[in-house]
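User: Show me an example of a complex going from sequences to C-alpha cells.

Assistant: Sure. Here are the input components:
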Amino acid sequence: METTTFTSERSSEVGDAGEGNMQQQVQAVAEVEKKQMKVMVAIEECEESFNALKWALENLFFFLSSSSAGVAAETELTQNQEHGIVILLHVQQPFQNYIVPVGPIIHATPSMLMSVRKAQEQNSAVLMARALKLCKERQVRAEAMILDGEPKEMICEAAEQIQPTILVVGSRGLGKIKRAFLGSVSDYCAHHANCPILIVKPPK
Amino acid sequence: METTTTIEKSIMVVGIDDSEVSFYALNWALDHFFVPFASNSPFKLVVVHAKPFPVKVIGIAGAGVAEVLPIVEADIKRIAAKVVEKAKEICHNKSVDDVIVEVVEGDARNVLCETVEKHHASILVVGSHGYGAIKRAVLGSVSDYCAHHAHCTVMIVKKPKPKH
C-alpha cells in the first residue's frame, strides 16, 4: 500500500501506520508555517536595544529551553528556525550638511562627509554583527536591514511594508521631561506603528 | 494550599475591559503565546479587568447622585461579570485553562501597573484604541500610561486598520 511506504521513509516519530500519520505530518507542517513569526527588532547603538533583542530571543523563541521528550534534537532546531525569523533593523541618521558651532557656520567639505559616512557605516556593521551573533547563538534565523533617515519614521515605515508579527523596541526609561526634549522612538512607534509593538524596559 | 510547579513560568498579564480591542489583544496573546505550545506554554496567564469606581463614572453631578449611584454600581458589576465570563470563554476555547482572572476596582492605569507588581509579571499585554493625538490627549490612554510606568515589558496590540 502507498501509505505504509510513505511513513517508512520519514525518520521522525512513528505513530500508527496508515493515513492518520501522514495527515498528522501534513498538518504539522502547515501549523509550523502558520506559526511563522516575523519579529522586527529595532537596533540602535544604545544598550537598551540589545537588551530588547535578548529579551525577544529569550521569550519569543524558546524551543531550546523547552525539552519535548521524544523529539530528535534535529527537529527541535528546525522548529526554532521555522518558528520565526528576526529582522534586525538599524536606522542611520543622515549626517547634517553643516556643523553649527558657536561661531560661524562651517559647511562640511565632501571629503569630511565621506569619512563620517564611512565611519557611520563601519559602526552599523559592527552593531549588526553583534546582533546577528546573538541570534545565531540562539539558532534563530535573522536578517539585517540598514536604512537611512529619521529613526522613528523609518521604523514605522519599515513595519508597514514588512508587516511583522511583532515590532520590538527598547526603551531608555527616560522621565517625562527628558522624553519631551530628547524625543522617544518607542513612544512614536507605539502610536504610529500598525502592528503589535513590544516595549522592553531596562531591568531595574 | 497551592502546589508548587516545578517549572518556573513567567507571568503574562493581559488587561481587558469591555471594548473589542482588548478582546482582540487577548485573542492575539493566546494565539501567539499559548496555542502553539499546547499545554507547555512558557507563560502563565493572568487576566485582569479594572472596574471603575461608580462615583467617577457619574462625574460631577448635582443632587440626585444618591439615586443614580446604585444603578450605576449595578451596571458596572454587570459589565464586569460579562467581561470575566467572555474572557474565561475565550481562554477555554483555546484550551488554556490555567488562567487567573481578576477584577480589581480602580483606575485602569493604576490597576494594571499594580497587578504587574503584585504578580511580578514579565510582560503586560494591552490593546490600543488607536486614537489620534487629540482624542488621546482628551480621553487619556491606558496603553500609553502603562508603556511608561509599568515595570515590565509592555506589548501593545493594535487591531490592524483596514487599508483604504
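The lines above are the inputs; the final block is the predicted structure for all two components together. Confidence is low (pLDDT under 50) at residues 1-6 of chain B.
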